[in-house]
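Field reference: sequence -> structure
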Amino acid sequence: MEEYPEFDGSQVCAQTDPDLWFPTSEKQTGRTAKNLCRSCIWLTPCLEYAIRHEVVGIWGATTERERAQRRKQLDITAIPLYSSSLFTTSLRGKVAASRYNDGTNEVGNG
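Structure field:
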């Protein structure tokens, strides 16, 4: 599995409310989070990682739907990420893992 970029905690996503990175409805575009991402020096590695892995929320200034479109264009199959405890040490990671797991449970139980 590709390694998660070794972020140092200086990223804006590590310093803001984790909920900002997880729009909760179709009407929420994540515009604020995407704009913050675009100013981050980690934009490229974050986006590359998010395209290759099944992550939820705003990553690399893209939504889940936008990344799915890019994967289709690039013929990439995403690697599931949150099935393990990898990446759940940060607050953002914990929120993401919880939301990912809730979403897969809803699909499995629906």
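Note: The longest helix spans residues 91-109.
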